[in-house]
Design goal:
This protein has 441 residues and is of the alpha/beta class. Helices cover 53% and strands 6% of the residues. It has a five-stranded parallel sheet with strand order 2-3-4-1-5. Helix 11 runs parallel beside helix 13, helix 15 runs parallel beside helix 17 and helix 18 packs antiparallel against helix 19. The N terminus is likely disordered.
Length: 441
């Protein structure tokens, strides 16, 4: 019943079902995996299947490939969907697989949406995969590294399927035209628009073509504008709590770091259109202002906070313009992670020298006992010196001086670097004078 519910033909025989490939050679795209001599193709042709995971976006052919496997192997084929199946279904499948194994018949177990099984359920696969009771083929739209147990992954190969490219989509058009016995009723420009709408999803693309065929007269041809009125654009593939979320925010952050302002605007727009909370973007952009710009442009952090405040006051969509302005400013600002690396280095030293006390000359001495112990002795009040700088050392004596902050020669940090060099020069001069006076004594 499970196999039937996944792969049975519909009575209405929609275009997607009539176009479903029955041979590997008919699968559109995925030549890197299924072309002659490709790794997955070699495994299938040899008939010696080992457990593997098919990872790819919706509509790239994962389920179709599983169906073809069912016809290419001499093994018993069982299909389950993690959306509709539970522990009882898995237990039944494993028990039946053990019975058939006793008679020398192997079981190929296909699990659609395998990432929807929780960790405990995934652990249940391990003994049956390990001892060969089943050959597991799992299909997932989510990154297996995040969604599948490492123990299960170690027992399975992972094959990555890609969204369908223009060549693969054009092949689907050719097949649809043959089945429909007429050309796709769109202009060349509308044809490209239709392919863009699909965004690499073959199943969605076929449904779009079927809509166009169903809603156009025999002698009618749609241009791009008319096409947009007939079909709806595909909703963006974006899940705020899964890999797409992290991929896009990483793309935004790295585009900004690389001063590619236009790319950063694109990735931010993708996230907003996909339903991302703008306040999450603002939090990450504020972090970027501190981490990747820092004191190279002190205004960056102030503008980030101002954009955040503007969005809080205006909301969407008006407040989104403040986000765009912030992205443009951050993308064009001079970059420096000197403050970030200085803080990281200081934290490491704090952990390494976690028990050292400050030097005695900068310790306060509120009691007579503390004064007798040398607290505050020889402390020089910086404002009493001609330069407003005493040059004394403020690190623990056992630690010695350390340099954490190394400003770059970009933006405002160029001025900070000049200031630090001035203080370092004065410190060396004062230390030299102090050493000479000590030697005379």
């Amino acid at each position: 019943m499970e196999q039937q519910s996944l792969f049975a033909d519909n009575v209405s025989r929609p275009l997607a079902d009539r176009m479903r490939p029955t041979r590997i050679e008919e699968i559109a795209g995925q030549s890197e995996l299924l072309g002659e001599g490709a790794p997955l193709r070699r495994m299938i042709d040899s008939g010696k299947l080992s457990s593997f995971i098919l990872w790819g976006p919706p509509g790239c052919g994962k389920t179709t490939l599983a169906r073809i496997l069912a016809g290419r192997t001499s093994m018993r084929f069982v299909a389950l969907s993690a959306v509709f199946s539970g522990v009882a279904d898995l237990r039944k499948a494993f028990e039946e697989a053990e019975k058939h194994r006793a008679y020398g018949e192997g079981t190929l177990l296909f699990i659609d949406e395998i990432h929807r099984f929780n960790r405990a359920q995934q652990d249940g696969f391990l003994p049956y995969v390990e001892n060969g009771t089943v050959v597991l083929v799992g299909a997932t739209t989510e990154n297996p590294s995040f969604e599948l147990n490492s123990a299960l992954l170690s027992r399975c190969k992972v094959f990555t399927l890609k969204p369908l490219d223009a060549e693969a989509l054009a092949l689907l058009i050719d097949r649809a035209e043959k089945l429909q016995h007429r050309p796709l009723p769109v202009t060349p420009e509308a044809r490209q628009t239709l392919m863009d709408m699909a965004d690499g999803d073959g199943r969605y693309f076929i449904n779009l073509m079927e809509t166009v065929y169903d809603l156009t007269a025999m002698n009618e041809t749609l241009d791009a504008e008319a096409l947009r009125k007939v079909v709806q654009k595909r909703a963006p593939i974006y899940d705020k709590d899964r890999e797409g979320h992290y991929n896009l925010i990483s793309a935004l952050h790295k585009s900004l770091r690389g001063s590619d302002t236009d790319a950063a605007l694109y990735w931010a727009a993708r996230m907003i259109d996909g339903g991302e909370d703008p306040k999450y973007l603002l939090r990450r952009l504020t972090r970027f202002a501190s981490e990747d710009i820092g004191l190279a442009d002190p205004q960056a952090l102030q503008l980030a906070l101002a954009a955040w405040d503007s969005y809080d006051r205006l909301g969407s969509p008006e407040g989104e313009l403040a986000i765009a302005e912030l992205i443009i400013y951050l993308g064009t600002a001079p970059k420096s992670n000197a403050a970030y690396t200085a803080w990281s280095a200081a934290r490491r030293s704090a952990r390494e020298f976690s028990s050292l006390t400050p030097p005695s000359h900068i310790l306060n001495a509120p009691t007579r006992l503390m004064k007798d112990l040398g607290y505050g002795k020889d402390y020089v009040y910086d404002h009493d010196t001609p330069e407003g700088f005493s040059g004394q050392d403020y690190f623990p004596e056992a630690m010695g001086r350390r340099t954490f902050y190394r400003p770059v020669e970009r933006g405002f940090e160029r001025e900070i670097r000049r200031r630090l060099e001035y203080w370092d020069k004065l410190r060396r001069q004062k230390n030299r004078i102090q050493n000479e006076e000590s030697s005379h004594e």
